[in-house]
Write a structure and sequence with these properties.
Shape: elongated
Strand order of the largest sheet: 1-2-8-5-6
Helix content: 40-55%
Order of helices and strands: HHHHHHHEEEEEEEEHHHHHHH
Largest sheet: 5 strands, antiparallel
Structural class: alpha+beta
Distance between the termini: 47 Å
Radius of gyration: 38 Å
Number of strands: 8
């Protein structure tokens, strides 16, 4: 049977000829445009209702006043760019866009390289990525506690004060001071005797203002120093008797000395000799020249303990919040960059090593260029994310400094729903925020198309 005879037979059986065009009755892999539009229509309607309509409505609403009844044109935009608080928010947003993605990307790169060179890399990745499982709300609460000023409750200041006190121990007597009628007067942050003393005399220097239980462990019963020829002696003690009783300015049996206190002998405004009190509070200056001396308790004895850094103050609030953001997102950057590192051809790296390149040269001239597309995607994605940052700033920053840490997303919420009740201005801020996000989104989409094409 010839091919000409077979064709009518095939057509009689209802089959399309071999060269039938796509889209015919049997071309099921390419349905008609109307059928495709029918399937896409529900999704397009839903997308328009959820995405397109809010964008269009917000743009239109930004040209009306707070009530939405009066058209004000670009008045909301003018107010936004002339308001000092909004300018602070724009500055902070710019800091976020530059600093946060850069730090997170760099830290993610370091972590990704480390995971290729250390044992237990899976455990390391798990620990670094774990904060991604925590919501921004919970992360804000965590770091609000971490940044507490008191070292007793704030982890950051507890670490800093521990390190500080290791190299520069704090004073043992913060808050101690003389009685009003004592022979001691303030001299700056120190206390000096009102009456001059001479060698061969013994002076009494009573202090109050602290609990007996807070004295150093080595504190012993206070003893009145004996006068010695050629020496100026004295006693520094806590002039307080537990349970009451005792006479002010006099050594009572139950009162304890104040050990390790720095005492200075001053003559002519110059410190000529320094002594340290013993466990019973006594001290002695020996070898002094004849003359009159003022006995001074050094200011270092009363210095307040180092309280750490004011993380939640106006100066450091934005860097502190960025630190919390880095903690959350470093794992995200590490995972993406590690995937990019794994995709780099090992032959290129080995060829560079065979040619005599050092590990640093291999990383800088081979790994980094091949990894550049991944780093760009990570950076741009993080830049889009930080433009919308809101919850970390709102949770971590106390109300007193929230204006110092404010960003555009927080301004948008505050103007619209946080007490401002000005939906026109809030809409204008959101439009500006949208305009800032669009270029980064376009850049990402173009890169994805280039990689797929």
């Amino acid at each position: 049977m010839t091919a000409a005879d077979e064709a009518p037979s095939a057509m009689a059986d209802g089959a399309a000829p071999p060269d039938a065009p796509r889209g015919s009755r049997t071309g099921t892999m390419n349905p008609s445009r109307w059928l495709a539009a029918g399937f896409l229509a529900p999704a397009l309607v839903l997308l328009g209702f959820i995405v397109v309509y809010p964008i269009v409505f917000t743009v239109i609403r930004s040209f009306f006043d707070a009530t939405g009844n009066r058209f004000v044109g670009v008045g909301n935009y003018t107010n936004m760019f002339t308001d000092q608080q909004t300018l602070v928010s724009i500055r902070n947003t710019a800091i976020w866009v530059v600093v946060a993605p850069t730090v997170v990307t760099a830290l993610g790169l370091v972590f990704a390289v480390l995971t290729e060179r250390i044992k237990w890399s899976a455990a390391f990745k798990l620990i670094v990525f774990m904060p991604m499982a925590v919501s921004f709300l919970a992360s804000g609460v965590i770091f609000r506690l971490v940044y507490q000023q008191s070292p007793d409750s704030g982890v950051a200041n507890a670490i800093i004060t521990s390190v500080h006190d290791t190299f520069a121990p704090s004073s043992s007597y913060p808050g101690a001071h003389p009685r009003p009628n004592a022979d001691l007067a303030p001299q700056g942050k120190a206390y000096a005797t009102k009456t001059a003393a001479r060698p061969g005399q013994a002076v009494l220097l009573p202090l109050v203002g602290m609990k007996a239980a807070d004295l150093p462990k080595g504190a012993a019963k206070a003893v009145q120093a004996a006068a010695r020829p050629g020496a100026l002696t004295g006693t520094v003690w806590l002039d307080f008797t537990l349970g009451g009783g005792g006479a002010p300015g006099k050594l009572d049996p139950a009162e304890k000395g104040m050990p390790a206190m720095t005492v200075e002998a001053v003559s002519g405004g110059r410190t000529v000799q320094t002594a340290t009190t013993g466990d019973d509070g006594t001290f002695a200056f020996t070898g002094l020249k004849p003359g009159s001396y003022t006995v001074r308790l050094a200011a270092s004895n009363f210095a307040a303990p180092y309280g750490g850094v004011t993380w939640l103050g106006p100066a450091l609030i934005t860097p502190s919040i960025i630190g919390a953001y880095v903690w959350v997102w470093a794992g995200f950057a590490m995972v993406l960059i590690a995937a990019g590192l794994a995709a780099i051809p090992r032959e290129a790296l080995e060829a560079a090593r065979v040619d005599g390149a050092t590990e640093w040269q291999v990383f800088r001239r081979v790994t980094m260029p091949l990894l550049a597309p991944v780093l760009t995607v990570v950076f741009v994605t993080l830049a889009i994310n930080v433009l919308k940052i809101f919850d970390l700033v709102f949770i971590i920053a106390p109300g007193s400094v929230q204006s110092n840490a404010s960003v555009l997303a927080l301004d948008m919420w505050r103007d619209s729903f946080g007490g401002g009740n000005d939906y026109g201005l809030g809409s204008a801020v959101s439009v500006v925020l949208f305009i800032l996000v669009v270029p980064a989104m376009i850049m990402n989409i173009r890169r994805f198309r280039r990689e797929q094409g």
